[in-house]
Amino acid sequence: MRLENYIKKDKEILDKLKTDCKPFLKELNKGGFLYRGTNKNFKDIEKMVPRTDRLPLGTDMDVHIFLDKLFKKKFGWKVRSEGVFVNPNVYETTQYGRPYFFFPIGKYKYVWSPDVNDLTIYIEDEMEDAWAEYHDEYGYEDEWDEEPEEDEPDEEKMMKRTVDSYISKGLINNKRNEMAFKCKSYYLVNINYEKLLEKEL
User: Fold this and answer.
1) Domain limits for position 173
2) Residue range 70-123, pLDDT digits in tens
3) DSSP structure string for 128-182
């Protein structure tokens, strides 16, 4: 009876993915899987509906809003607020919770950058490096005898340069960097089904 239940569950998962996620499976083309970390606990497969008003966990709100504005202008959607963030590297997702396989249902969009592993960390590092270089050169404001001729680091320009590096194609070429998906719903599948999915999808 237990074996029959396992076989029935395997078939249920495969039927859902092959029926509901055809566009994604076609683009994925056995090129590896994407993972999403979450603190929720699912035994097999779970259908999820993403939020469209996601708030930042570790990003300053002003930065979050400005990045959304830049992404909206380039791609037509607010990546920071509307995106479902995933990664082709399972270990990168464990910092957000338990990793699951990610499968967008139906039509979807995505963006990623060949240069950016994690957008929050990347932006913070860029800003910190720019300000450190500026202070190394000119010191701090309370040390100035006169204001430096050099302008302070332009944080908005840095963010624009980062967003300009993002693309909306080439999913199978991404082996290590964070991606953001826009979709109406998606499945999360327990990674215990790895062998089944590798064999059947």
Assistant:
1) 2-200
2) 999 999 999 999 999 999 999 999 988 999 999 999 999 999 999 999 998 888
3) HHHHHHHHHHH--GGG-SS--SSPPP-HHHHHHHHHHT-BS--GGG-SSS-EEEE
